[in-house]
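WARN retry 2 of 3 for item q-0093 after timeout on previous attempt; input resubmitted unchanged.
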Amino acid sequence: MTSAEKLHYDRLQSALKQRKLILFQYSCTQIKKENVKITSVFALDYFSDAEWYRLASNPLLHRDVSGFLAERKNYYFAFWNYNPYYGFGKFDLRLSEEDFGKLEERCIDLDAASQYYGEKMKQGYIGKMKGGLDKRYYLALLNNLNFQRDDWITGKHEANIRNLQVLKGSSRAKIHVIRDLIELMQKKKLLVKLDTSFIKKSKKIGGVPALIRIKLKSRWEIIEKILLFVLGSIVTALVQLIFGLFFHWF
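OK item q-0093 returned
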């Protein structure tokens, strides 16, 4: 275990002690590409459960995020992963180098904090897996959490999704799982160990069948809107016809 992992664990404990903790989650196009486009932003107040979200359809997305942070100057912001690729650096916050540095000092990498917790509790910790693994999903299964599995989309699939409501549902599912994991951690009941029986189950959400399900879900929401529009047009036409006949008869 490294000093960096302990640092993030200690930041988390400070945030919980001060009751100033915001969980932060966003989806975007390919994260390691230079021109990253944010597609949805979701934040959750750990103590009040108040949700805050913005979608890419909002042209003032970055201004709204800046305002959200400015209103919470003394808060800590917890990401599952906070690193050079994924963090506030992807937003046009227009902060000075000094102010951005102060913001980073209040950012928490929950993956690192969980690793420190695992070592502290003598459990060990689930490491990187060949082919990738969404640790949040894995830990949710391992800890038998009740969560919105059908809404969950892995990051690599999210990069190709443009249905904003589907993205919002995925972000909500993830951020509430993160909240539950922290709660278990504080009770010293969180399991973070490697259990191979859950690996295969966890990897299913990143496979081809999952992508097909996501695509169908996105398409169905579009079809549903079209059907509602058609139904509305039919009802309107029938009402007009009935009124027309009524006035014709009388």
